[in-house]
Amino acid sequence: MTILAAFLALVDPIMDGRAYRGVAPDEVQAPYAVFARVASVEGLTLDENGGTDNESETRIQLDIYGAAGDVDARAAAVKAALKTWHISNVVQLELDSYEPEVKLHRTMLDIATIHQ
Predict the structure, then answer these.
(1) Which of 36, 63, 65, 86 is the most exposed place for a label (fewest CB within 10 A)?
(2) Does 52 score more than 90 pLDDT?
(3) From edge to edge, which strands make up the β-sheet containing 55-66?
(4) Do β-strands 104-115 and 55-66 pair in parallel, antiparallel, or remain unpaired?
């Protein structure tokens, strides 16, 4: 399973099946989340030949959209789930904003992972 598939499996139940990679469908009902890989480095190793069990570092940005209370609750649930996830991770940044075009609050989480 890829890191993004594993992330979707973690987040989608929290979002009641409304977590999307890259872009949300038109007319999606809030609350919903969109996530994307924003950076990835493969082959973290000290093995001179590159090894066969290299770890990768991947940063994932998760944007949760909805009413303020929904966004706060879903972000807290995601952060709690990340603490029990089998993949090493840390939330590097959390940012709140309001998106006037869609009239929704947004919380963005920037999550760094290390995985095989």
Answers:
(1) 86
(2) no
(3) 19-21, 32-44, 55-66, 104-115, 88-99
(4) antiparallel
